[in-house]
Amino acid sequence: MGLLVAAMPAVMPAAAKDPSPNPAPNAAAKAGAATPQASTPKSVTPKASANTPKASAKAKDDPDSAVEQIARPSATQLAAMGWRIIDDPATGSRLGLPSVLVPKIAQARMGSRWTSAHGQIDVETFRLHEAALAALFDDEKKNRHRAVEHSALKLDSFVISGMQGLKRFVERVQASGSELRGITIMFDQATENMMAPVAAAMADTFQGFPDPNAGPPPGLRRSVDYGTGVVVSDRGYLLTAAPVVDQCQSITVSGFGHAERIAVDDNGDLALLRLYGAQNLSPAAIAGNAASTDNLTLAGIADPLAQAGDAAVTHAQARLTPQGLDPVPKLGFSGAAVVDPQGHFAGIVSLKWPLVASSGTTAPTITGQAALIPADTIRSFLAAQGVTPSTSRAPIDQSVLRVICVRK
């Protein structure tokens, strides 16, 4: 039976390019892109069998038929496979990866590559400039090493699945202008019962051009996360929102190095970090009282995806409403400092991305929520930890640092 892949909404298309030495897309050449040279897979095109249907066998295996659906693994199953959301620096894509199944990482010709210990599973990302989506779609379907079973082309994405040599494959490609980004997932037929649902989850999670202002899919954590911390003492203490440093294998503060998580408040909103031996810190003046106003300024460091890899402190205006801070700031502003119009410290931002709605094959709607953790709550928390708030008047931008969490 052919591999069934979860359909992806047009607003979040995905991609793929053959992992192991894969066929080069002639379509990219037609569009003027630099195309890799094709190489022949080690295994030849398989003979037809119950598990390897011919591309023209049945209507449901028609290469032009709609891509069918397959149930995704449960959260428990994904956790056991080491499922995590990662940002691929080679292509700028975001993808879900079963890290236990594909522990070997290497650089690919046009992206990144992850493989299992003995090569049964192969995942590869790629990126093409000045390429044509429809032309690549046609070329990939005509690849002589493939028996295509399902395919679907949309305005900004396509998906193809079937057999390549003796392996099953799923390919997703997403377009933005003339740039294409994609992912190919390949696995041995012997692993199909386990890998077919996982491949569907990977294809569904893949984002070739992730929204820099959106969080990861609900319930999933990025392997490297970025937030903001506020220096509260020249003895090396920083404050951030607790979710920023939740389940971290290591915590790093840009420009200063490793930080230790000292405490988390009872509500799980605040986390106290410490930098040992750090010098030239500029604590925020959090001892005074801010004016009573709904008009506030947020000072934080946005996620690298939201500012083209930069690490600059930026400001955002917001109003305090009964629902929280509006508008919701960019990803990376969790833990950002909040000040009133006179520059007095009013609190920090707690940024969350809960699931709002999901229906059938429609992608979940993810809407950020930004809450203000007020200065009084912060002062009480610091007092309980024996940290004396600073009374300095350093500009708030000097007290804001990037916090980086690396998870397993």
Write a concise synopsis of the structure shown:
The protein is mostly beta strands and about 400 residues long.
Write the layout of secondary structure elements.
Layout: H1 26-30, H2 75-80, E1 83-88, E2 93-98, E3 104-107, E4 112-115, E5 121-128, H3 133-142, E6 146-153, E7 157-164, E8 167-176, E9 179-188, H4 192-205, E10 224-231, E11 237-241, E12 250-253, E13 257-258, E14 260-264, E15 270-274, E16 295-300, E17 314-321, E18 324-326, E19 337-339, E20 345-352, E21 355-359, E22 362-366, E23 369-374, H5 375-384, E24 400-406
Antiparallel strand pairs: 1-2, 3-4, 4-5, 5-9, 6-7, 7-8, 8-9, 10-11, 10-24, 11-15, 12-13, 12-24, 14-15, 16-17, 16-19, 17-18, 19-20, 20-23, 21-22
Overview of the molecule:
The chain has five helices and 24 strands. By secondary structure, the chain is mostly beta strands. The chain folds into two domains: 180 residues, Protein Transport Mog1p, Chain A, CATH 3.40.1000; 183 residues, Thrombin, subunit H (Beta Barrel). It has a seven-stranded antiparallel sheet with strand order 3-4-5-9-8-7-6, with helices on both faces. The N terminus is likely disordered.
